Fold this sequence. Notes:
Belongs to the phospholipase A2 family. InterPro entries: PLA2, PLA2-like_dom, PLA2_histidine, PLipase_A2_dom_sf. The protein is an alpha+beta fold. The protein contains 4 helices and 3 strands; from the N terminus they run H-H-E-H-H-E-E. It has a 3-stranded antiparallel beta sheet with strand order 1-2-3. The longest helix has 18 residues, at 69-86.
Amino acid sequence: MLLLLLPSLLLLLGSGPGSGEASRTLHVHRRGILELAGTVGCVGPRTPIAYMKYGCFCGLGGHGQPRDAIDWCCHRHDCCYTRAEEAGCSPKTERYSWQCVNQSVLCGETPAPPCHPPRVFPGYPGIGR
């Protein structure tokens, strides 16, 4: 039994952030606010820091009309977090499953408690390059 588990454990240990293009193609991650950087890395080459003061909604706070597709993505993210908090969830600290498939972030598919996707987070569009 242990011999059957060993390859799976090695795959999990070797497929963390920064382990190459293969992990960016199809890999299941867990994420709270600390893992948000991983989703940004999934969809484009820019670092999360590049978006800290981008447009009206990327980074802290948010106001006005989103300026472009990237800013709309940040706006959607903010709205999702607000909906989750209104539902009694803690999206900034709770972790949930997501996948990086062809540079697109897909939320978890398995049935889960009300605070888990797809009930609260409908999925995120890719961020432009």
